[in-house]
Structures are given as structure tokens and as C-alpha cells.
């Protein structure tokens, strides 16, 4: 079978436990109940492109978040009382969000973001301060 390029910005890349990797059309939410790790890439022009008006959590795995170009802030919701924690990411940098930690992304400059996580059980929660 001939190898063909994969458009990372329209594809969901599934990394399976058995070593298989497959790509399919990116759809919001349908991948949440699968058992494979998911690699996604997003070109973001505004906070809406990264659902900046929602908090997100992945209860079953850490999430690797990388800023490929542009600049973002990865914002972690306080676990107890206190202030939000912000991690600034610029092109070529990444952070790991611990499993079970609510987080969101805010853009400082338009760019490209890549994330890898096990999305099973992931949830979004509308921000009340947005």
C-alpha cells in the first residue's frame, strides 16, 4: 500500500496499545471513548479555536501540549482555593498537564498547537468567568 501524506490539522491520529497507528477525519467528541492515545494538531487564530471558553480535563492520562508556532498560555484551574497557574509556551516548547487537572488554553499569538492524550472520559466544562 503506498504511503500518503496526512494533514495533521484535519486528522485525528490514533496511537494504539498494540503499536498500530491510524489516521481518520477529526470529529469533535467521537474519540473520547476509544482506548487509543490521540494526537491532534490545531491551527488557532482565536481563543474560540481552542475552546478557550471551556475548562477541559482528562481523568485517565496526562496530556502533552506543544506550541509549534505562535504563543499560548496553558492555564491550570486551582485544585483548591487560590489563583490559576499559567505556563507560557512559545514555538518549540511544551508542557505536560497531569491527569485529572482542569486546564484551558489562551492564545497570545495565532499559531499551531499539538496535543497527545488518552481522551477516554475527557470532559469539557463551560467557564463561568468567560
Automatic annotation (TrEMBL):
InterPro entries: Cupin_2, RmlC-like_jellyroll, RmlC_Cupin_sf. Residues 54-109 form the Cupin type-2 domain. It comes from the Bacteria. Pfam families: Cupin_2 (PF07883). Signal peptide: none annotated. This is Cupin type-2 domain-containing protein. It comes from Nocardiopsis rhodophaea.
Amino acid at each position: 500500500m503506498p504511503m500518503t501524506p496526512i494533514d495533521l490539522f484535519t486528522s485525528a491520529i490514533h496511537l494504539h496499545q498494540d503499536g498500530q497507528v491510524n489516521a481518520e477525519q477529526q470529529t469533535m467528541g467521537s474519540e473520547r471513548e476509544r482506548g487509543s492515545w490521540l494526537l491532534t494538531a490545531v491551527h488557532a487564530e482565536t481563543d474560540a479555536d481552542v475552546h478557550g471558553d471551556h475548562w477541559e480535563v482528562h481523568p485517565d492520562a496526562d496530556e502533552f501540549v506543544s506550541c509549534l508556532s505562535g504563543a499560548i498560555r496553558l492555564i491550570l484551574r486551582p485544585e483548591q482555593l487560590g489563583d490559576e497557574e499559567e505556563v507560557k509556551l512559545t514555538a518549540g516548547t511544551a508542557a505536560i498537564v497531569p491527569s485529572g487537572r482542569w486546564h484551558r488554553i489562551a492564545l497570545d499569538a495565532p499559531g499551531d498547537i499539538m496535543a497527545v492524550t488518552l481522551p477516554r472520559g475527557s470532559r469539557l466544562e463551560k467557564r463561568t468567568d468567560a
